[in-house]
């Protein structure tokens, strides 16, 4: 099952630029963005771009991958806590799965996420690579 | 005149050695290493392409540009011969990723290995014409080389990005000169996977004639001599050609050294001399003069004379330098992984 290009298009702000929302009253940041702060019903918020470095809180290794990622497996899927405390999940790349560790520092990079077969649309977005500089 | 306000580069971490390719095809590795001065080349993994390399390089250029917002960029031009789509621009995706849409002009350029310097040339023309305050030019490729062809030993990947403007410059562009003729030295027809080339014919009459044509013309136009430059960067289809074209025209090894990346990077096609320029700016000092000359088959060369300003000292260390991308954090792969990464394995599924 591949992602519909229309859905991917709607998610460009998050996938391409990691745009989140920060609510005025609570100061909480949500990613993907929400319209209403679930803690207090606040709707006043500002758009913020998340930082591009963080560390792995936990991860798993996908060895039997869905068809569109079959050729790139095995690969890691990690929950990363970014420098501002926001947590998000994403695919690891440029790393041997045996080297992925909890606490590992990572950097966000823009990569090709999937493609709709040989003829379809290419989808792009963020992935995590080990931080080395 | 217009010039560079911010610059950045990106390279894959994967490398393959000449010996590893030669082993598969029964080629003589020492003769490639000695004859073409190539030791290894960069290889993009499957999730990296001209668009992703461009985004990373452009983000670094924005960091070095300091006070330029992405929305203030009036044009984005990407020069490449490996745009991921045959029909659908690379530039719109890159502009969207940078947050530079929707009030922006966008075009993808193609001119074999010269597409990147074309993007730089046109971006600066907008600034000089007063059309806009900032224009982004990107030179990027995930170069193709047919299995067992000589090009397979050199075809590499990388990107260089330049934000052009007229104030707060890092490098002022003092002169440009373009030189071109119709030359059947290297081409790729539609629906073909890999480019074709005319073997030795790609040398004297093609690379050397055009590179020297543009270089000599810009030296005459500027009334400058090779010794007036601190550095020089030439298109680098292999290690040997840029060295030879430099030395034959009176430039020295010391002048080309910082931007001479091809012996360990390979040929990044449209990216070659622009990435070489990023590595040169990384070590340049205020007042340094840099000559840059691209070459693209078909064929032509764009030459530029840059004068580095005081601002280089402020911005050089704001993000990663090109030599660090070239020399550190490397993963060496064998031919099987390389074939998979470059989609050289035919699957019927």
List the helices and strands and how they pair.
The complex is a heterodimer of chains A (133) and B (349).
Chain A: H1 5-10, H2 12-17, E1 19-23, E2 29-30, E3 45-49, E4 53-62, E5 75-82, E6 87-91, E7 105-115, E8 122-130
Antiparallel strand pairs in A: 1-2, 1-3, 4-5, 4-7, 5-6, 7-8
Chain B: E1 3-10, E2 14-17, H1 18-25, H2 29-35, E3 40-43, H3 50-65, E4 73-79, H4 90-98, E5 105-109, H5 115-128, E6 134-142, E7 157-165, E8 171-180, E9 186-187, E10 196-197, H6 203-222, E11 231-234, H7 240-248, H8 253-256, H9 262-265, H10 272-283, E12 289-293, E13 300-308, H11 312-315, H12 322-327, E14 331-332, H13 335-341
Parallel strand pairs in B: 2-14, 4-5, 4-6, 11-12
Antiparallel strand pairs in B: 1-7, 1-8, 2-3, 6-7, 8-13, 9-10, 12-13
Helix pairs in contact in B: 1-2, 3-4
Could you explain how this protein is built, in words?
The complex is a heterodimer of chains A (133) and B (349). Helix content of chain A is 9%, strand content 41%. Chain A has 133 residues and is mostly beta strands. In chain A, the strands form two sheets. Chain A has a five-stranded antiparallel β-sheet. Chain A has a three-stranded antiparallel β-sheet with strand order 2-1-3. Chain A is globular. Chain B has 13 helices and 14 strands. In chain B, strand 9 and strand 10 (196-197) form a beta hairpin. With 349 residues, chain B is of the alpha/beta class. Chain B folds into two domains: 3-170 and 322-341, Peroxisomal Thiolase, Chain A, domain 1 (3-Layer(aba) Sandwich), CATH 3.40.47; 171-312, Peroxisomal Thiolase, Chain A, domain 1 (3-Layer(aba) Sandwich). Chain B is globular. Classes of the chains: A mainly beta (133), B alpha/beta (349). The interface between A and B is medium-sized, with 18 and 24 residues.
